[in-house]
Design brief:
By secondary structure, the chain is α+β, with helices and mostly antiparallel strands. It has three domains: about 55 residues, no CATH class; about 30 residues, no CATH class; about 130 residues, Phosphorylase Kinase, domain 1 (2-Layer Sandwich). The longest helix is centred in the middle third of the chain and has 23 residues.
């Protein structure tokens, strides 16, 4: 990607960076921004983790037999001809762009599970990082004020140490370019990411599994809570019940 064609949207730049489409100068400039802009670095990690989940859940399949022949016939390219006309070549480019763009839309279009997939990707990114939280504390009176000024409304934070789920800290994840508060709890050696999304956004199925992680969601007072962990489903359900029953 040349300097004259580099987009201004940082998210597009991140996609181009991960695709290896940026020229060395722009790639170096973006890496410097990653180092100085935590939100942009988090977006890079989120997109990379989401791609990993997509690759795991949607493995590539071989094209059906005869697809190339049907495309050639549709755009007017004769296999016997060694030098197709410029009109046929232009048509083939348009068909390839349409097919490629359509495939991308099918994979990346918003759907009922897109929020869950993104939150699982954020949980995976946190597990892979040296620190799964932006603020590390077991004191809810430290964690809750940390969110003030960073998001429109601080989440409900409760102390569940007595129930076997001590608070570890909190972080900010990104859902559809919107910052979302995520609390991190621990049960033995397992971490639980609990995200709070206003307005009941993205509630599809109350419980399921994505990429080997259990996902549990519920709505309280207009807030959709999403819990993600490699805990057993029964233990994650105990956590959700303890959180809902606890006093703020």
């Amino acid at each position: 990607m040349s300097p004259s064609t580099a987009p201004d949207d940082p998210t597009l730049l991140v996609h181009a960076y991960l695709d290896g489409e940026l020229d060395p100068a722009h790639a170096l400039e973006l890496e410097r921004r990653f180092a100085s802009e935590p939100a942009l670095a988090a977006e890079r990690d989120r997109i990379a983790a989401l791609r990993q989940v997509i690759q795991q859940q949607l493995p590539r399949e071989a094209p059906p037999p005869g697809l190339a022949r049907r495309i050639e016939a549709a755009v007017g390219i004769r296999q016997a001809s060694s030098q197709p006309s410029w009109r046929a070549l232009a048509a083939s480019v348009l068909v390839a762009a349409f097919v490629g763009g359509g495939a991308s839309w099918l994979v990346l279009r918003p759907g009922p599970d897109s929020v869950a997939d993104t939150l699982v990707a954020g949980h995976m990114r946190a597990l892979m990082s040296s620190q799964p939280t932006d603020v590390a504390s077991s004191d809810r009176h430290t964690v809750k004020p940390w969110f003030n000024g960073r998001i429109p409304e601080a989440p409900r934070v409760v102390d569940l140490a007595a129930e076997g789920f001590p608070l570890v800290g909190g972080r900010i994840d990104v859902i559809g370019r919107a910052p979302v508060p995520t609390l991190v709890y621990r049960h033995r050696q397992h971490l639980i990411s609990l995200s709070a999304i206003p307005g009941g956004q993205g509630l599809a199925t109350p419980q399921g599994q994505i990429a080997g992680y259990n996902v549990l969601s519920w709505i309280d007072n207009g807030i959709t809570y999403w819990a993600v962990s490699d805990l057993a489903a029964s233990d994650l359900d105990k956590f959700a019940k303890a959180f809902r029953a606890a006093s703020p």
